[in-house]
Write a structure and sequence with these properties.
By secondary structure, the chain is an alpha+beta fold. The protein folds into two domains: 111 residues, 3-Layer(aba) Sandwich (Aminopeptidase); 165 residues, Aminopeptidase. It is 25% helix and 34% strand. It has a 15-stranded mixed sheet that branches. Strand 10 and strand 11 form a beta hairpin. The radius of gyration is 20 Å and the shape is globular.
């Protein structure tokens, strides 16, 4: 059901997005140069269709914003677009404020909301209650890597998959691992357990995920997903820079010659150095901001942000 915004011009409403409108959202994002992953929106929709809010003027779809919830109490204000023909009239501010307030309701008292916003808008977001934590930088170029023989392809399975001792996998074998071990590796780098999200994110068509397994535990993994142009990396998680370098090198070899974008937290200097060593250059960036307090995550283990749109 659409909500009429008080004090707004007649005919302005915010309501649920219709699934048939997803291609328009993707087209808008591509036009902005955001190069969305081919399956990013499908993953979000499959998990939480109510995360997509449509801004309409007299019934015309003119804007969209996402408010994705990672249960139980972490939200992310992601994709946010107003059709250029309708900008400059304060409509985007109304949509932004509405979705912030609705997301606060959904995560509940004591919940935390994150977002990646463009640098120029940081003062606006701060007035809306967010505080700056650090910057996320996009490194971009052409993928070229070097295979490490001890890095294996990871295939996420269900609870009954991969129970064998994966440390016995040969260097040429595919390691079939259970999702719980992937989540365990990821857990310190994200505010909450995101089993459901990663279960879909890592299994979409065309996605490459590689990792290192020691004593039956995943100690590093990296993912590349096909995008409208080339590939995007993320997440990239590792116990130390040496492990990260090995999985990233192997992953980049998997997509050798393709355009690649790698988003990373600026405080992780080892990740920045790695990107430079692979010939990638900074092309874009966002301010990582939080409402409700900055969560305690291990930036030193986070070498690649999953998505500017969904956390």
């Amino acid at each position: 059901m659409a909500t009429v915004l008080p004090g707004s011009e007649p005919g302005l409403t915010i309501g649920a997005l219709d699934h048939v409108e997803l291609p328009q959202v993707s087209a808008w994002a591509a036009k902005e140069g955001w190069n969305p992953g081919l399956c990013d929106l499908d993953v979000a929709w499959a998990l939480e269709p109510e995360a997509f809010l449509a801004l309409r003027l007299h019934g015309e779809f003119i804007g969209v914003g996402t408010i994705f919830v990672h249960p139980p109490d972490y939200g992310f204000m992601g994709l946010f677009i107003v059709d250029p023909a309708h900008r400059g009239h304060g409509l985007g501010t109304k949509l932004w404020t509405y979705r912030r307030d609705l997301l606060m309701e959904r995560v509940g008292h004591g919940g935390v909301i994150g977002m990646d916003g463009v640098f120029a808008m940081v003062p606006f977001y701060e007035r809306g209650g967010f505080e700056l934590a650090y910057r996320d930088l996009r490194m971009e170029g052409t993928a070229h890597g070097l295979v490490d023989p001890d890095v294996v392809d990871l295939h996420v399975g269900g609870p009954d998959v991969g129970r064998a001792d994966a440390s016995e996998a040969g260097t040429d074998d595919l390691a079939c691992v259970d999702l719980a071990r992937m989540v365990a590796c990821d857990r310190s780098t994200f505010p909450v357990d995101r089993t459901g999200f990663l279960g879909l994110w890592l299994t979409r068509q065309g996605v490459h995920t590689v990792g290192i397994i020691e004593d039956s535990n995943i100690v590093a993994f990296a993912t590349a997903r096909p995008s409208q142009v080339g590939y995007k990396l993320g997440p990239v998680v590792a116990d130390n820079p040496g492990l990260a370098r090995r999985v990233v090198g192997t992953l980049l070899d998997r997509i050798d010659g393709h355009p690649v974008q790698w988003d990373m937290p600026e405080p992780n200097l080892a990740a920045l150095s790695m990107a430079s060593d692979h010939g990638l250059h900074e092309s874009f960036g966002c301010a990582r901001m939080y409402l409700g307090g900055v969560p305690d995550i291990d930036i030193d283990r986070l070498f690649g942000v999953t998505s500017f749109e969904f956390g």
